[in-house]
Structures are given as C-alpha cells and as structure tokens.
Amino acid sequence: MKSSLYLHLVILSFHLLLLLHFTINKVRALDTNNNTDRQALLSFRLQISDPQNLLSGWTNHISTSHCTWFGVSCTTDHNHRVNSIHLPGLGLSGTLSPHLSNLSSLQKLNLSRNNFYGQIPIELGRLFLLTHFILAENSITGAIPASLSQCQNLRVISLGFNKLTGHLPPELGALPRLQVLDASGNNLTGVVPPTFGNLSALTVLSLDSNNLSGPPRRQSRQPPPPTSAPTPPCKAPLCPAPPPR
Ligand SMILES: *[C@@H]1O[C@H](CO)[C@@H](O)[C@H](O)[C@H]1NC(C)=O
Ligand SMILES: *[C@@H]1O[C@H](CO)[C@@H](O)[C@H](O)[C@H]1NC(C)=O
Ligand SMILES: *[C@@H]1O[C@H](CO)[C@@H](O)[C@H](O)[C@H]1NC(C)=O
Ligand SMILES: *[C@@H]1O[C@H](CO)[C@@H](O)[C@H](O)[C@H]1NC(C)=O
Ligand SMILES: *[C@@H]1O[C@H](CO)[C@@H](O)[C@H](O)[C@H]1NC(C)=O
Ligand SMILES: *[C@@H]1O[C@H](CO)[C@@H](O)[C@H](O)[C@H]1NC(C)=O
C-alpha cells in the first residue's frame, strides 16, 4: 500500500515534469520568434537615420507590439511574424543591417527611393520566404550577392538606380519564380550570365544604363501591349455616358 502510493507519486511528478518541460519549451519557442523579429527590427532601426521621425514608435517599449510599428506588417496567424517592411520614399538614410536576415517570415521588403548606402548583406540569403526585394533608387554599393539565389521564392528583385558594381551573379539563374529583375542604372560590368536563360518565369529583365557587354543581352522582355486599350474600371455614377448611336 505504502509503496503503491509512492509509485503513484513518482508517476505523477514525472507527468508534472513532462508538462512543465513542454510548457516552457512552447513559451520559449513563441518568445524566440516574437523576440527575434523585434530585436531584428530594432537592430535595423539603429543603423538608419529618419529625418521625418516616422519611426519614433520603433522602440523597445514593452506595451507596443512591433506589428503595429510604422511600415511593419505581420502574419495573421497566432505567431504574429513580421512578413512585410514597407518604407519607400521616406528619406531614410543608413546601411542595411544583417540582422534583417533574422526575419525568417519576411516576404516583402520595400525600401525604394531612400538614401540607403553600403552593401547588400550576404546574410539576406537566409530570407527563404522573401518574394519582393525592392531597393530601387538608393545608393547601394558593392556587388549583388550570389546568396540571393537561396531565396527561392523571389519574384521581384528591384535594384535599379543604385551604385552597384561587379558582375551579375550567375547563381540568380536558379530562381524558379523570378518574374522581374531590374538592375538598370548601376555600374554593373561583365556579361549577362547564360544561366539567365533558365529563368522561365521572367517577364521583365531591365539592365540598361550599366557597363554590361556582350550577348546574350535580353532587355525588357515584356509582353506586347494589348492591341486595344483596356476598359478602365468605373463605378456606375462615374462612368462616361455611352456614345450616341
Ligand atoms: C507574440 O506571440 C504571441 C503568441 O503567438 C502573441 O499573442 C503576441 O501578441 C505576440 N507578441 C507580439 C509583440 O507580437
Ligand atoms: C541575427 O542575425 C545576426 C546577423 O546575421 C546574427 O549574428 C545573429 O546570431 C542572429 N540572431 C538570431 C537570434 O538569430
Ligand atoms: C514599393 O514602393 C513603391 C513606392 O511606394 C511602389 O511604387 C512600388 O510599387 C512598391 N513595390 C512593391 C513590390 O511593393
Ligand atoms: C559609375 O562609375 C563611374 C566611374 O567610376 C562614375 O563616374 C559613375 O558615377 C558611376 N555611376 C553610377 C551610377 O554609380
Ligand atoms: C563604364 O566604365 C568606364 C571605365 O571602365 C567608365 O569610365 C564609365 O564611367 C562607366 N560607365 C558608366 C555608365 O558607369
Ligand atoms: C539550366 O537548368 C538545367 C536544369 O536544371 C541545367 O541542366 C542547365 O545547366 C541550366 N543551364 C544553365 C545555362 O545554367
């Protein structure tokens, strides 16, 4: 009798320990995700100046969720992971933090028309869900990192009008979903890599105003414009009167 009670106690405490273990792990996992995103955003913020003070809400104040920060969007599921940073045309200036690579759910990064300078961190190749990488019209220098070829979901790479140098990485030819590659208005040299012939989803390749040479040079392989102008959408009271017959 006494030993059976003892056994029960042992089993009970074992179960309690197990429960505690899973609870702690679960809390830690959620915490890490949330906290990693938050820390990554704060690291990104630290390296930029914001003349219009639009990012003043980006602080580590405990009561504000980073999902409510200006320009930040999160997934709607219970994990609340950052999936978009949309900060174009705000006069932001600074370098791109490699900590952005910790935003493992990031799909869209739009920092176009600012004054970002310095290089594209090779670590950004860890953003496996990234679909839109938009840095057009900044002052980014250095080469386009070949590591971007690891972002296998990329659909749009927009790097036009920066100060990029070096060669187009042949590895980018292995991006199965790439539809738009715009690197016009930079100082790229060398040839367009033959691997780009494998970009079967590509509809726009814009590489003009560089120092690229030699074939194959396919520019703006855009679908031809429709023969008749598309009818613009209109709401009933705004529609123009039909022509008299
Ligand atoms: C962190 O995640 C938890 C649960 O997934 C969520 O309830 C909470 O709002 C998140 N925190 C932030 C700051 O997004
Ligand atoms: C975040 O990214 C930086 C730069 O790549 C890295 O050093 C750091 O270990 C990462 N932190 C986490 C929590 O993943
Ligand atoms: C990025 O932002 C610019 C400026 O608002 C906008 O024109 C462009 O369509 C955006 N690109 C994407 C892919 O969201
Ligand atoms: C390209 O390089 C030349 C010579 O170094 C420089 O004068 C020019 O401003 C550069 N262009 C761009 C777009 O960076
Ligand atoms: C192309 O390269 C030459 C020298 O290699 C340089 O003088 C020229 O400025 C470059 N052109 C552009 C558009 O950057
Ligand atoms: C294109 O892809 C095929 C199949 O993955 C590969 O065998 C070939 O080497 C690639 N071509 C180039 C030019 O990279």
UniProtKB/TrEMBL annotation:
Keyword field: Glycoprotein, Leucine-rich repeat, Membrane, Repeat, Signal, Transmembrane, Transmembrane helix
Gene3D superfamilies referenced in this protein's UniProt entry, alphabetically: Ribonuclease Inhibitor
Boundaries of every Leucine-rich repeat-containing N-terminal plant-type domain copy: 34-75
Region spans: Disordered: 210-245
Biased composition, class Pro residues, residue ranges: 222-245
Keyword GTP-binding among record annotations: no
Its membrane topology: Single-pass type I membrane protein
InterPro entries linked to this entry: DNA_repair-toleration, Leu-rich_rpt, Leu-rich_rpt_typical-subtyp, LRR_dom_sf, LRR_N_plant-typ
Similarity remark: Belongs to the RLP family.
SMART domains referenced in this protein's UniProt entry, alphabetically: LRR_TYP
Primary localization: membrane
Subcellular location(s) per record: Membrane
Cleavable signal peptide: 1-29
CC per GO annotation: membrane
Protein name listed in UniProt: Leucine-rich repeat-containing N-terminal plant-type domain-containing protein
GO biological process, alphabetically ordered: defense response; response to other organism
A Pfam family the protein falls into: LRRNT_2
Membrane in keyword set: yes
